[in-house]
Amino acid sequence: MKYTSLLFDWSGTLVDDLPPTLHATNEVLLKYGVPAIDREEFRLRFRLPYPEFYEEVLPGVPIADLEGIFRSSFNQSPVRVTVLPHAREMLAWCREQGIRCFVLSSMDVGLFTEQAHEFGLHDHFEAIYAGVIDKRHRIGGILEDHGVELSKTAFVGDMVHDIETARHGGVDAIAVTTGYDPVARLTGTAPSHLFNHLGDFREWLERSLLLP
Fold it and tell me: How far apart are the first and last CA of the chain?
């Protein structure tokens, strides 16, 4: 497949922010008297849209009350956000190939902006859509606004919600196993393609360019 446009999720796809997210989530839970959870339990239980997850673990607590605790705890995490291996190379390769790149993420806008500028990644994207609670409801308008060719476009993400979002937009769903959802959960939703990481995806794209 020769893609001309790629939409990327952020968390778990381009950056590894699972450790500070888990730290912040546990701080929220502890604030309301709920025991902390470990990494594996978090990966099994967490889902997007994230208000649904918090309604499950903290029923009846307004999401607005949780977000402030989450943001401050996220920034105080002893483990910082890092760029995932192969992410920089992937974005640089897309630029070389003239592939249009976008971000569609549920990450808090403020946290996203800090990370994107700290890592020097913001200039790789034609447009950025952060703070989107339910990406399924936004992708169609984004694709229409930017006039992309649906048959040559894919959404790249690490969660079932991202695969569902791609389907809502009528584009290919590219799943990577570097993030939040376990492999079994991703394969169970039958993405268009599944890769271990963005490096494998890029190599697959490079091979596709050699095909007639």
Answer: 11
Report whether 179 contacts 156 (CB < 8 A). Answer: no
Q: Report pLDDT digits (tens) over 59-113.
A: 999 999 999 999 999 999 999 999 999 999 999 999 999 999 999 999 999 999 9
**Residue bearing tokens 């990494």:** 39
CA distance readout (Å), 53 to 42, 60, 150, 188: 10, 12, 31, 20
Give how far Cα 55 sits from Cα of 45, 58, 155, Å. 12, 5, 27
3-state secondary structure of 16: strand
> DSSP assignment of 155-201, as one string?
EEESSHHHHHHHHHHTSEEEEESSSSS-HHHHHTT--SEEESSHHHH
Global pTM reads: 0.94
Backbone Cα Rg of the chain: 17
Q: In this structure, what token pair is assigned to residue 9? A: 């999720």
